[in-house]
Task: structure prediction
Amino acid sequence: MRTCTASGIGLVFFLSFLFLPSRGAPVENDVHKKYLVPPPPFSEGIFPCSQCHQGMPVNRTPRKLEMMHQDIVLHHMPDGWCFDCHNPDNRDTLRLANGKLVKFEESYNLCGQCHGIILREWKAGLHGKRSGMWNGEKQYLLCVHCHWPHDPEFKPITPMPPPVMPSDIK
Amino acid sequence: MEQNEQKNNGLNRRTFLQGAALGLASLALPFDRADASFWESFFQKHFREMNEAEIKNVLSRLEREYEEKYKKAIKIGNEKAMPGVLFGYGLDLSRCIGCRRCVYGCVEENNQSLDPQIHWITVLRFKKGEKWVDLENAEKYYNPEKVPQDEYFYMPVQCQQCENPPCVRACPTQATWKDPDGIVVIDYNWCIGCRYCMAACPYGARRFNWGTPNRPAEKINPKTHYLGNRPRYRGVVEKCTFCIQRTRKEPGRYPACVEACPVGARKFGNLLDPTSEIRYAIEHKRVFRLKEDLNTSPKFYYFFAYGK
Result:
């Protein structure tokens, strides 16, 4: 009787060891699936970047751009440079400081390298705009939907008209 | 001698006055309104005393009336409060830029009158560095080129959905009450327009239909709730209901103001759910409630996501 229980417990232990790692493995993917985001707001026809950059020699020296992308003036990191975030070896991906590559669809991981608290609050649903269902599927937005990454400060906008003053009611 | 005379007449002062009063009262009743729906609405019971069948009758009668008036189908829902849900709202004052997108998002969703104009949300502008939340000197008619302005901050105010609502106690006809999910609702068919609730509300959140609500039929949102955004009448009070027609669903959408806010300053969720964003805000951020000293216990939390 006792041996039976013991072997039962042993079996449970064995099974749990068998299953735990397999359940643990896809967690990273689940984390990304959790945040439902619309596609990144690329300018018309600019993505994939490799359609132009494929086979182009890579010039890694920081300089003022004159052929293309002149509209991008970096007002973000002081002394920042394209390859701090973009991947020189494959322009269709972004690159973290530790060398890991991230897709444009998961660019929040790139922003989170410096803005860690903001990323944590974004995941919790506090930072940024949420739409969809309050008790169901929530629509998140990427950082870059509201903050243009090369000049991320939120720009002032025109307010909607004020309410009618009592003196103006006919 | 006098008694005899009265008997002869068959009419004394008292019976005469009684009869006159009845006659006048009957004159005031519009007997020419022969349609059944008028008399049905006249004898409608209190919303919370009706059973399901009676509510269904009322809803179909109202849908008929609205269809006649607006020449389009308007669906009136009657979703009950969901168990285990207590709605709470968070507003991040460190992010709000005072753009009033929420005000007009609310008007579109909730069928407010356009002229006379009714807004359920008021955005107040305060000068930075003055007495903190100086409501007397706040401005709501500000209209600069661009917002936010450096020297001001902004605070939208709407119904705070108090746990202890003074407006409910003030109502003489019990036309307004707090539902189990915390939303304070109004039955527009029971409101007599005395505006006692407006005097009782410390937040100025209730609005009165001084004139006949005026909204073109093509701009009417046909997805409505009996206690929420169905078209209102002249002489009734209305206010924010946390978009009851959207939120009381499984799954339910966010309120219109949450979806309208371009900076994500507005947060909404279930206060009883520890994983909701509103709970995260309350547990991790500096939070206050407006006029907390009045013991109204609002479920509308103002917070600061980052210090500045």
In short: DSSP finds ten helices and twelve strands in chain B.
